[in-house]
Give the backbone structure.
Amino acid sequence: MIVTTTDSVDGKSVGQYLGIVSGDAVLGTNIFKDLFASVRDVVGGRAASYEKVLQEGKDLALADMVERARALGADAVIGVDLDYEVIGGDSKTLLMVSVNGTAVKLG
């Protein structure tokens, strides 16, 4: 399955538009990640634990979207857009990753 942020696939034409497909992932963080991230915020540096959760969220959301595109018989998903939101606060922080694009059959 070709997944691209562009509105076309080089060397291919879109034969049929099958519709918008999306995928979502909501992942929880925990108090220890939040604590270490706040320390990193003060002293600087990368928050590897949050980066790992963010990557996992992207992977899950993309896989969800691709599965929905396959169910429609798509060869590709074009115009893909990723969006991130933080839900909650304090010790109940959730990360939501949403992805959407257009499922197409290539000609």
